[in-house]
Amino acid sequence: MSKREATTILFLATSVLLVSADANACAVCFGDPESPMTKSMVAGIWVMLGCIGTLLAGFAGMFGYWIYRSYHPHLYREEGATN
Hints:
single chain, mainly alpha
C-alpha cells in the first residue's frame, strides 16, 4: 500500500466519523429500567442463558459418559467379542 492510498483511506475514515449523525439509544437501552419492555428483554436474556446452559450441560454429560465408558469397558462388551 502506497503512502497516497494510506492517506486517502485515513481521510475517508476520518470524514465518515466526523460527518455521521449522533447515534440514539433505543428505548430499552436508554429508557426507564422499570418499563415492561426492559423487563421483557431481561427475561429473554435469562431464557437464552438457560437454553445455552442446558446445551452445555448436555455436552458435559455426554463427555462424562464417554469417559466413564472408557474406564469400564467390561460393562459394555458384547457377547462373543474376542477382545
